[in-house]
Specification:
alpha+beta, Rossmann fold, Tumour Suppressor Smad4, six-stranded antiparallel beta sheet, 6 helices, 17 strands, elongated
Length: 290
């Protein structure tokens, strides 16, 4: 019997309701299910023993919190979207009761997403973490620019005067990095993206880096600053501190039923590119050459 965990964004009534209904649906099909609040990492970790699949009911934020446990245990995630965008999710909430059981049968595949190892170094002392989306070195509560010296593989690249600098994985390329003008990478890519946030009279071009690159962001000045991992874990920064990021050996696993090009369909839908007024989009899936 498969043991299934359902991780819910309890801040949304619709997510809570669907989670309980989904649990009843799966238990009626003889699956062993447990339910947890997405913000209770300790409870998720305690309940995860012998769990084969974690189903998240929320948005990408719910997936990022769940990944903190799932990645370490190698448990795949099935994302049900109750948020606005949900680039990492697999299906809409309205389809979950019908479609989720099919993902627990043979025939699905596991997509592996790269993650980022991060170190925050101060006077030789290192604090370590990791991120699925990105690490951001940014200004603190005071509305002033920070100065960051960026090095790639030990070679000085540029000095950024900006609100911050983002180092993102392919998964994170559709998050904060995209919002500030960064490129979107294919989700299984092992490249990195380096993007300044609101740069002032400095290099503003986003960069795509190789998967073996090691990036060091050195805070030069600007007062209070922070390093944030996936929008949740914060580390205070002061001048001289180094934020170091490189590709991790860890991978995040996601259950998928559709073929890999599903990502571009999802991208078009989430960004509204498939609903341009007056446009006619040809359906090539049924073309004679298919």
């Amino acid at each position: 019997m498969k043991r299934i965990g359902i991780i819910c964004n309890t801040r949304k009534a619709a997510s809570r309701e669907l989670s309980h209904t989904l649990r009843e649906r799966l238990e009626a099909l003889s699956y062993d299910c447990w339910l947890s609040n997405s913000r209770d990492e300790a409870q998720i970790l305690e309940s995860c023993a012998d769990t084969q699949v974690l189903i998240t009911v929320g948005g990408d934020g719910t997936i990022l919190r769940t990944a903190k446990v799932a990645v370490g245990l190698g448990v795949p995630i099935l994302g049900v979207n109750m948020g606005k965008l949900g680039f990492m999710t697999e299906m809409r909430g309205a389809d979950a009761l019908e479609r989720v059981p099919d993902y627990l049968k043979p025939g699905v595949w596991v997509e592996e997403r790269a993650t980022l190892d991060v170190e925050v170094i101060r006077e030789g002392v290192s604090l370590e973490g990791w991120a699925l989306n990105e690490v951001v070195a940014s200004r603190g509560g005071v509305a002033r620019l920070i100065t960051v010296h960026a090095h790639i593989d030990g070679v000085f690249l540029a000095t950024y005067r900006a609100d911050g600098v983002i180092l993102a994985t392919a998964t994170g390329s559709t998050g904060y990095a995209m919002a500030v003008g960064g490129p979107v990478l294919e989700p299984q890519s092992r490249h990195l993206v380096l993007v300044p946030v609101s740069p002032h009279v400095t290099m503003s071009t986003p960069l795509v880096l190789g998967g073996e690159s090691c990036v060091e962001l050195v805070l030069a000045d600007g007062g209070a600053a922070i390093a944030t991992l996936d929008g949740h874990s914060d580390y205070s920064l002061r001048p001289g501190d180094v934020v170091k990021g490189k590709m991790s050996d860890r991978v995040a696993k996601f259950l998928r039923a559709r073929k890999p090009p599903y990502f571009y369909e999802t991208l078009a839908q989430r960004l509204g590119l498939d609903r341009l007024p007056g446009s006619v989009v040809p359906n090539i899936s049924n073309s004679p050459t298919d």
